[in-house]
Amino acid sequence: MSHHRTDTLAHAPLGREAAYPEHYDAGLLFSIPRAANRAPLGIEEGALPFVGEDEWHAFEVSWLNEKGKPRVAVARFRLPADSPNLIESKSWKLYLNGLNQTRFESRERVIDTLVSDLSHAAGAAVSVELFDVDDEALSPRRLPGECLDDLDIEVADYTPSAEHLRVGEEVVEETLYSHLLKSNCPVTGQPDWGSVLIRYRGPRLDREGLLHYLIGFRQHQDFHEHCVEHIFMDLMARARPERLLVLARYVRRGGLDISPWRATPGERPPEPLRLARQ
Asked: Where is the active site (predicted)?
């Protein structure tokens, strides 16, 4: 397998129909030499009249830990302006998507892999930083309630199953959320990423089971709105809460984002807020 490709734009993935891979493949990265575009500007290779960087942010970075549980992050990449190559954007997106169903032993291993592959493609050292979605360095805004994402669970299935939804006898009122919601567009197959908030009054939900259930949408194909309705209906059927609100805030795609919510009559969502991935 070629580690990366360097060729003309005629062979670049941009503008071509492409499947979205879910397993790691460094060969997806497509390098484009900078020299061809710089020559008409009178810029000679090896004698740049400037210093600089190309700074990229990726809001759809995800992988699996050793137990199969998804991890999500926002990445910041910095390519030096004196690198011989830039990296074509769609190939970069497809490469990152290939991490989605790939297991890594640690966050550090993910960073090491990204640094190695991207630096090889660029022909110079690329800087990589990973941020948690709730990191205040990205945004001080976060969903209200308690986050489920640090629960240590083992996951083996990635299709939704209401069997994971379990409740106890105690009646509670609480707000829970997760950033691990992912599904796929039923038309294009493109991944859809989101954060989901669940506010309810009723029998206490088993949190590990709830997180397992939400992760189950990871390979499910459906529209954003239908996923929220799917979650709402499953919770109503399995937990029978007195009150329920399900709200999802999806990552922007093509300049559009959507935040559908469904609730029992009388319930209203929290005040609108934009999260770091939006």
From this structure: 185 (thioimide intermediate), 192 (proton donor)
Walk across the sheet containing 191-205 and list its strands: 146-147, 167-184, 191-205, 243-250, 261-263
Enumerate the known binding-site residues. 87-90, 224-225, 253-254
Positions at the binding site for substrate:
87-89, 224-225
Indicate which residue of 185, 206, 222, 257 is catalytic.
185
| pLDDT value, residue 9 | 55
Secondary structure letter of residue 221 according to DSSP = B
Catalytic: 147?
no
pTM (two decimals): 0.89
Helix ranges (DSSP H) in the chain: 35-38, 89-97, 107-122, 207-215, 224-239
Residues 6+ apart with CB under 8 A from 17: none
- The reply to whether 82 belongs to the active site is no
193-241 confidence digits (pLDDT tens) = 999 999 999 999 999 999 999 999 999 999 999 999 999 999 999 999 9
